[in-house]
From TrEMBL:
InterPro entries (UniProt xref): COMT-like, COMT_C, COMT_dimerisation, SAM-dependent_MTases_sf, WH-like_DNA-bd_sf, WH_DNA-bd_sf
One MF term in the entry's GO annotations: O-methyltransferase activity
GO biological process: methylation; secondary metabolite biosynthetic process
Transferase is among the record's keywords: yes
Alphabetically ordered keywords of this record: Methyltransferase, S-adenosyl-L-methionine, Transferase
Provenance organism: Penicillium frequentans
The keyword Amino-acid biosynthesis is assigned to this record: no
Protein's name according to its UniProt entry: O-methyltransferase domain-containing protein
Positions of the O-methyltransferase dimerisation domain: 56-131
All residue ranges annotated as the O-methyltransferase C-terminal domain in the record: 239-380
Pfam families hit by this protein: Dimerisation, Methyltransf_2
């Protein structure tokens, strides 16, 4: 009788196969166990792949990026379910050559977007099903369009003698498009790109609604720091100013649903073009405004900046903060929702990629130390920094500051 020593690697392989065949048994994305499994799986994959294959995948990543953008351009994900999912039918519906369709679908299937059960016949995967949803599609397309600027990154950095391109003109965006205009100015002559960016912004907010709604509610119902039991103090005139808040769909919804309604004025500010056609209703005041100009609303309880500062260099952020600080009173607070990079390294790939992506517009992601420094230089003292969603790894952080 022979004693067989169980192979731990074989046992692990069987466990992984069982888990992948029953995805419904995996913990939800908000679960801490999910994060541990995902982190361990990534480390295992890194250990199994050779350095050569990893580097080849990285070098060829722009191919997948280009094919995905092409699929979005021909509206493949909207048209996939309009008839039989064959190469001939898909090509006809998308208005492209059959041979080209086959080559695009081959790549999409290879990266897990669609499968090809038999030659020329395609089926959905979880990824392609996700891209059928307009909001997810808009976010992916917006990020993909921005990523095209990275092809010009080496030449841009070389032009600036490999110095960190802080407060330089043109930015990477202008360098790639051969223009001195900012992205927002350039959009005025590019309606298709402007529409992609607008859809990206609104969809990003819509997908984050589960985080935004409770956060905005907490800002709207929180008592003013100056409130006391003396009713003569009364509520502040302005409860919240959402600076650069886009079209404010979530804010307007929350304000409409709050019962009792929020005290004081709720002000939604953004550029005139952004706010065209937006009606705030009885509870939200829509105010065209550029945060590069002096803040016209003085003494508000809260000035909110969500995903604003990472688009700009320290010099521009200092100007925006200066405009806001000049309007604040001792009891006012400034609230920032943005990414915070770890001071000691170990940033996630997404955070690191996003930081370089922001370089395209002259912006950057910042560490906690950098945030504290720029706020202190503006005359503000940080009161708290905490996750917007404690259950989501890599969540945005909420930073609250008051006057020094």
């Amino acid at each position: 009788m022979t004693d067989e020593t169980p192979n731990p690697m074989l046992a692990l392989a069987l466990q992984l196969e069982a888990a992948s065949n029953n995805p419904g048994q995996l913990p939800p994305a908000s679960d801490a166990l999910h994060s541990r499994i995902l982190d361990a799986t990534r480390k295992l994959l890194t250990g199994l792949e050779t350095p050569e294959s990893q580097l080849m995948h990285l070098a060829k990543a722009p191919v997948a990026h280009g094919v995905l953008r092409a699929a979005l351009r021909i509206r493949l994900f909207e048209r996939f379910d309009e008839g039989p999912p064959t190469a001939t039918d898909l090509a006809r519906r998308c208005g492209i050559d059959v041979a080209l369709l086959v080559r695009l679908m081959r790549t999409l299937a290879a990266i897990g977007i669609f499968t090809e059960p038999s030659p020329g016949l395609y089926a959905h995967t979880i990824k392609s099903q996700t891209l059928r949803q307009a909001e997810h599609r808009a976010v992916v397309q917006g990020m993909a369009e921005t990523a095209t600027l990275m092809t010009a990154l080496p030449d841009f950095l070389q032009t600036h003698h490999w110095q960190d391109p802080v407060d330089v003109q043109p930015t990477l965006f202008g360098f790639a498009h051969k223009t001195d205009q900012t992205m927002f100015e350039w959009f005025e002559s590019q309606p298709e790109q402007r529409a992609i960016f607008a859809a990206f912004q609104s969809s990003t907010a819509a997908l984050a609604v589960c985080q935004l709604e409770p956060f905005l509610r907490s800002l709207l119902i929180a008592p003013s720091p100056s409130s006391s039991n003396d009713s003569s103090d009364g509520p502040r005139e302005v409860t919240l100013v959402d600076v650069g808040g886009g079209r404010g769909a979530v804010l307007r919804q929350v304000c409409h649903e709050l019962d009792p309604p929020p005290h004081g004025r709720i002000v939604l500010q953004d550029l005139p073009k952004v706010l065209e056609g937006v009606e705030g209703g009885e509870r939200v005041e829509v105010m065209p405004y550029s945060f590069l100009d002096p803040q016209p609303v003085h003494g508000a309880h809260t000035y909110l900046f969500r995903h604003i500062f990472h688009n700009w260099s320290d010099g521009v952020v200092a100007k925006i903060l200066q405009n806001t600080v000049a309007a604040m009173e001792p009891t006012s607070r400034l609230v920032i929702v943005d990414l915070v990079l770890p001071d000691g390294g170990g940033a996630s790939p997404y955070a690191a990629f996003l930081d370089v992506s922001m370089m395209a517009f002259g912006g950057m992601e910042r560490t906690e130390a950098q945030w504290r420094k720029i706020l202190k230089n503006a005359g503000l003292q940080v009161r708290r920094i905490e996750p917007l969603d404690a259950l989501t790894p890599g969540s945005d952080q909420v930073m609250e500051a008051g006057l020094l």
